[in-house]
Design brief:
CATH topology: TIM Barrel
CATH architecture: Alpha-Beta Barrel
Largest sheet: 9 strands, parallel
CATH class: Alpha Beta
Number of helices: 12
Structural class: alpha/beta
Order of helices and strands: HHHEHEHEHEEHEHEHEHEHH
Radius of gyration: 18 Å
Bound molecules: flavin-adenine dinucleotide
Length: 305
Amino acid sequence: MGLLNRLVVGSAPLLPRFFIGRIAARYVAGDSLDDGLALVAHLNGQGFAGTLDILGEEVQETDATLRFRNTYLEALDGIANSGADCNVSLKLSALGLRIDPELCWNNLALILDRAREFDNFVRFDMEDSSITQATLDMCRRAREFYPQCGTVLQAYLHRTLDDARNLAGSGSNVRLCKGAYVEPGKIAYQGYQEVRDNFMATARQLLEQGSYPCFATHDLWLIEQCETLVAELGVAPDRYEFQALSGVPVEATLDRLVAAGHRVRYYIPFGPEWYAYSLRRMRENPAIWRHTVRAIFSRSRHRRR
Ligand SMILES: Cc1cc2nc3c(=O)[nH]c(=O)nc-3n(C[C@H](O)[C@H](O)[C@H](O)COP(=O)(O)OP(=O)(O)OC[C@H]3O[C@@H](n4cnc5c(N)ncnc54)[C@H](O)[C@@H]3O)c2cc1C
């Protein structure tokens, strides 16, 4: 990381809220469900599917998990009422996984019940390695109850190829990403190309075992490799998808993918807790502040603000 980037990221919590707010405007649809649905409609109109994420994680109190659960129920209602091409992504820690797995399960079961009413899909985001196994276990339990759900594998973890094999089975739907947390060398690849190689090995495994993989990356090299792989294996375009975070400047590539007949889904976060999310995006990509400064002066067809 360059000195200037390190300086900006290190001092980010001290930056004026206005500046972080500019970052949030790039990555977050807005404070409310209506903001999220409006961005989904905007992107649906351009051929993209959506997945709505309500911002917030590491919930410590039972009441807060119930509020999260209720907001997801409202989101599923809102998606159904608006007829949007959109599902939901959630963090199990926000539903109480770290407080009590049964509390988490009870919240999740209600969300899955509501998703079932609308025949919609629910994705469990993957968090740090302290709850990888618990998330996979919860996913296995949930899929017995309602098969239209799935979780995420992180290519930086050594265990991921085995986890992919264990997730094989009818209707298995897995998002594959590099991984967003800082993990130690004894469990995670540290080299940039090593992570890419494990991403591609896992992508191949998922496709060959008949799972529905979602290639969640902005790495243009990986996107091209995935395009080549699906062509080589002759996989139909309704058997996989690409995914991207709303706001990451890869619009031209995503437009090209849609035009070429691939399914592309935007991950669209919304909610009042945009501050922590934006700081994380900034830590993930220190060069972001440059994009942000540029974004203040530019507009994208893929954003509303
Ligand atoms: C749809 C989706 C869902 C995800 N879900 C999870 C999850 O559940 N668990 C998890 O651990 N991680 C998740 N991630 C994050 C992921 O693990 C990576 O941390 C993140 O996508 C960056 O990796 P990359 O593959 O884009 O490659 P990189 O090599 O990091 O980035 C490729 C290019 O994109 C640019 N870029 C990447 N991120 C940003 C950004 N935020 N802003 C501006 N430019 C950026 C980089 O500058 C670089 O030019 C998700 C990512 C996506 C796209």
